[in-house]
Amino acid sequence: MSGNGMKDDEAVTVIVGTLMLILVTVTAAAGLAVMVSQMQKDEMNRQSHQAAVKNELLKVTGIHPVYNETTGALAELNVTILNLNTADSKVNLIGLGDRLYPSNFTARDGSYNNTYAGYLIPAGRQGEISLNMTRNFPSDPKLTRVDTIRVFVITSYYNTFEQTFKPPAADFTLTIESEDLGVAERDVIVLDGSPSSDDGAIVDWTWSIFEPNTTLPELSGKKARFVPMSTGPFEVRLTVTDETGMQGISPNKTVPLSGRFFPPTYLAAVPSGNFIIATVTNLNGHPVENATVTFIKFYDVHGNLSLSQYAALTNDMGEVNVSVLSGEGTIRVESGKIAPVFVPVKYSP
Q1: Are 249 and 278 in contact, with CB atoms under 8 Å apart?
Q2: Cβ atoms within 10 A of the Cβ of 79, count?
Q3: Helix/strand/coil for 113
């Protein structure tokens, strides 16, 4: 009996050992499965994060700058950001230019971000962020209407998206055209701002015209016609403004002095003793210097009518004096296209 009992004990021991081995194996396998499952989950999370980082796509679609009307400096900048991804995105940081960061910003929904907790922009939607140049930045960026504005945003995934907004480029052509006043040909200056360009739309053209020591009234419009009220010279400059308020300013172009800008339009001639005094004036009644005046014998009573000269240039008073040397008759006085004046003369010794 004792022999059989020992065998039975050995059998039980073997069975128990086998069961323990099976239990350990099952436990190890379960633990391994849990570990593999966690690793798979971590890998999936990692891949999901990588995909989120890779697929995140924001676009700075527009800006609306607000400028100080007195100084022309940028006072506030409203930035529109579009989320082109199928997942939400958070903007943690927004900046200008060469990594100029504000200490905080205000979102369109009124939220105030000063901890970089992130401004949420839902998938497929757009958000707006407002930046105050003096309140939100450690120092004023000192941007003006003519400065390029580069905006960049950094998301919670540390992706950076940026967009550069350039002011319009001002350019123009300048041509001289003549118009017939009836009594004279007058030159006018025709201005055309069509060569100006912008990545958006130009909404305003302002023409600044200067003559020595004087600024003339501004003209407006894509095309303008300037009728000089003097002989010049003139300097012309174009300022264009786009729909955001950004501006471009052209270099000055020079228009040389020309008597044709303000031609003579009135001629007067009267006898004075043995002289004929002729006066030439312009549209404003001001004397015209260096205008050519001609004197033609229209009627000679005795055939001996003679003058000291038959053509002369006006002096700085717009006058020409011609002597009657002999005879009696009528002199036809002319200057350009102005109606002639007939002057009766009679030499008196």
Answers
A1: no
A2: 25
A3: strand
Tens digits of residue pLDDT in 61-82:
999 999 998 998 999 999 999 9
Dmax of the chain from CA atoms? 186
Q: Which domain holds residue 86?
A: 58-165
CA 252 – CA 264 distance, rounded (Å): 29
Alpha helices in the chain (DSSP H): 2-55
Q: Calculate the alpha carbon distances from 167 to 73, 146, 250 in Å.
A: 14, 6, 12
* Bridge partners, residue 254, by sequence: 235
Tokens 């007058």: give the residue.
186
- Whole-prediction pTM: 0.72
Check whether residue 272 and residue 254 sit in a common domain. no
Closest to 155 in 3D by CA, of 76, 68, 85: 85
Using CA atoms, how far residue 123 sits from 55, 86, 89, in Å, is 12, 5, 7
Distance from C-alpha of 115 to C-alpha of 105, rounded to nearest angstrom = 10
Query: How much is the CA Rg of the chain, to the nearest whole Å?
Result: 45
Could you give the CA distance from residue 179 to residue 215 in angstroms, rounded to a whole number?
A: 25
Q: Please answer whether residues 252 and 236 qualify as being in contact, where contact means their C-beta atoms are separated by less than 8 angstroms.
A: yes
Name the 3-class secondary structure at 120: strand
Residue 180, pLDDT above cutoff 70: yes
Angstrom distance (rounded) from CA 264 to CA 337: 9
Same domain, 67 and 157: yes
Per DSSP, 69 falls in state T
The domain spanning residue 177 has which CATH number?
A: 2.60.40.10
**Residues 253, 233 contacting (CB under 8 angstroms):** no
Answer yes or no: are the C-beta atoms of 62 and 77 closer than 8 Å: no
Q: For 16-44, what is the mean pLDDT?
A: 64
Query: How many structural domains is the chain composed of?
Result: 3
